Amino acid sequence: MEKQDGNLSLVKVPQLERLPWLCHGFGDARWDEHELHQLAARLGIRPVLLNQVHSDCVHFIEEAPKRRLRGDAAVTRLGGLLLVIRTADCLPVLLVEERRRITAAVHCGWKGTSRRFLEKVIQGMRVRYGASPEAILAALGPCIGEDCYEVGTDVRGAFAAAGLPSSLFRPSSGRSGKSLLDLRAANRFQLLGQGVKPDNIFSISVCTHCDPRYPSYRRDKDACGRMLSIIGLSA
To answer: Phi and psi dihedrals of 159, rounded to 5?
Structure first.
């Protein structure tokens, strides 16, 4: 379902790559901001990075921002902008509404997911830009896998308070009060609930905690760095 982009450390989704006006990809640990700016310069497209704070704040970008915006998702229908999300175990989600050429990049950690952040982004795409959920293609990038993401009762409580299903969790063997969370399934649940077609949801089947090619905060703490995920329309 995914493929490597030549010599670049970028993984692409073929179903998105068929769109000639779209640039997208999920970078590994080698693909840093220097590589990002080199690619952007070659394409004549401007990167848009966020000051991410594990919030449910989404920016609808009508013009190129003059500074980094504080929040965890960006949506635009402007050409020439490359939306960027930085993660290290959290789930990066890239969205494109094919008919109206709307793109979005979303940082989905457990806090944003428990606030049903992805639902908020899709609802905003529909209200602000007339997006049709059935025309949205969603790419879920590398993140910590369901066998590695151990969480406490606070996380289970936040998900329960948000009305998210308990089936997203299973017990962690030998660890009282701990559960394993399927972060990918939690966000897939939200996509389906907003009307995104199952066949339009594509996942990169990589666990960042297990795969040393990707940054993992759970594995390496502050030394982990960040992986970059990108999506944008041609200029």
So the answer is: -70, -40
